[in-house]
From TrEMBL:
<dbReference type="InterPro" id="IPR023393">
    <property type="entry name" value="START-like_dom_sf"/>
</dbReference>
<dbReference type="GO" id="GO:0048039">
    <property type="term" value="F:ubiquinone binding"/>
</dbReference>
<dbReference type="InterPro" id="IPR005031">
    <property type="entry name" value="COQ10_START"/>
</dbReference>
<protein>
    <submittedName>
        <fullName>Ribosome association toxin RatA</fullName>
    </submittedName>
</protein>
<dbReference type="Pfam" id="PF03364">
    <property type="entry name" value="Polyketide_cyc"/>
</dbReference>
<dbReference type="InterPro" id="IPR044996">
    <property type="entry name" value="COQ10-like"/>
</dbReference>
<comment type="similarity">
    <text>Belongs to the ribosome association toxin RatA family.</text>
</comment>
<feature type="domain" description="Coenzyme Q-binding protein COQ10 START">
    <location>
        <begin position="10"/>
        <end position="134"/>
    </location>
</feature>
<dbReference type="GO" id="GO:0045333">
    <property type="term" value="P:cellular respiration"/>
</dbReference>
Length: 164
């Protein structure tokens, strides 16, 4: 069985981190080893996803169910037959100065000894970098949003410019 636990204070508001973790279809853009992620079914507070983990030619496809408790928690479980247990928990708590505490826990056990290399080569290394990957993505999206809403000097309409 593979387990990974991590707690970190991050310099962004809770909603920013929650939104990045909840956006599973963007995972291939920034989460190491995730080649594909597609939502199969969605309702107000949950969705089912098919995800593909890959390194070179080694690939593993599986389904998960994600439950969203905005903005405090995200739970990701799999009943896929390749796992005895697959459980990821994200918990978010606000801190002072628009920061948040992120608690991440992964518990994974594969059913087949034949698939143990998948666990060793794919899932464990990915778990060790998960929080960092999501933190980088959230900072990138926050910076992009700030650039969109902050007008550059000289970009104000002529009527709004002041001559002093």
């Amino acid at each position: 069985m593979a387990t990974h636990r991590e707690t970190r204070a991050i310099g962004l508001p809770v909603d920013s981190l929650f939104d990045v973790v909840a956006d599973v279809e963007s995972y291939p853009d920034f989460v190491p080893l995730i080649r594909a992620a597609h939502v199969l079914r969605r309702d107000a507070a949950a969705y089912e996803t098919e995800q593909t983990l890959a390194v070179g030619l080694l690939e593993h496809r599986f389904r998960t169910r994600t439950e969203l408790s905005r903005p405090q928690a995200i739970s990701i479980v799999s009943q896929d037959r390749s796992f005895c247990r697959f459980d990821i928990r994200w918990n978010f708590a606000p801190l002072a100065d628009d920061r948040c505490q992120v608690d991440f826990a992964l518990d994974c056990e594969l059913r087949s000894l034949f698939l143990m290399p998948v666990l060793q080569v794919l899932i464990l290394p990915m778990a060790g970098g998960m929080v960092s990957a999501f933190e980088r993505r959230a900072h990138l999206l926050a910076a992009q949003a700030a650039r969109r809403v902050s007008p550059s000097p000289g970009s104000l309409p002529a009527d709004d410019r002041r001559l002093d």
